Amino acid sequence: MIVVDTNVIGYLFLSSEQSQLSEQAFIKDNEWYAPLLWRSELRNVLSLYLRKKILLLSQANQIMNNALELLKEREYKVSSSAVLKLANESNCSAYDCEFVSTAIGLQIPLITSDKQLLKKFPDVTKSLKSFCD
User: Fold this and answer.
1) Verdict on whether the full-model pTM lies above 0.90
2) Beta carbons of 105 and 76 less than 8 angstroms apart
3) Per-residue DSSP letters for 38-76?
4) 48: pLDDT confidence band, cut at 50, 70 and 90?
C-alpha cells in the first residue's frame, strides 16, 4: 500500500520520462491510494493535453476511466484542519498537503517526485526513483 500523487498517476498513463519509473512502482506495489483531489488534478492535466492537441477527447476520457478504475475504492477523504496545519507548517500548497495528509492518515508512504514535499516531509515521503530501486 502506497499513496501516490497525481504526477505518479499521470506518469503511468501519459508518456513521459518518468513513465518507466511509475510502471516499476506499480509492479512493485499496485495498491495505490490518493486523496479525492487527484481526480481534479488529473482532469486538469488531461485538459492541458487536449488544448495542446496531444490527446483526443476520446483518449483523455479513456485515460481518466482507467485511472478511476485503478483507484476505485482507494480514494481518501482528508481533514481540512489537518491539511491546513500541514500547509501552515511547511509552506507547501494545500493541494500537496492533501497527499501528505492521506499518507499520514493511512500510515503509509507517499511516493512522489515533488522535491519540495520530499524535503519538507522526509518521514512521510519517498521519491519515485528510490521507491523503485
Assistant:
1) yes
2) yes
3) HHHHHHHHHHHHHHTTSS-HHHHHHHHHHHHHHTTT-EE
4) very high
CA distance 77 to 72: 13
Considering the domain 2-128 in this protein, what is its CATH number?
Answer: 3.40.50.1010
DSSP 127: E
Average pLDDT, the chain: 97
What pLDDT band is residue 65 in, cutting at 50, 70 and 90?
A: very high
Distance CA 35, CA 52 (A): 27
66 within 8 A of 32, measured Cβ to Cβ:
no
Q: 3-state SS string over 76-87?
A: ECCCHHHHHHHH
Band (pLDDT 50/70/90 cuts) for residue 21 is very high
For residue 6, the one-letter residue type is: T
Q: In what order do the strands lie in the sheet with 75-76?
A: 75-76, 32-35, 2-4, 110-112, 125-127
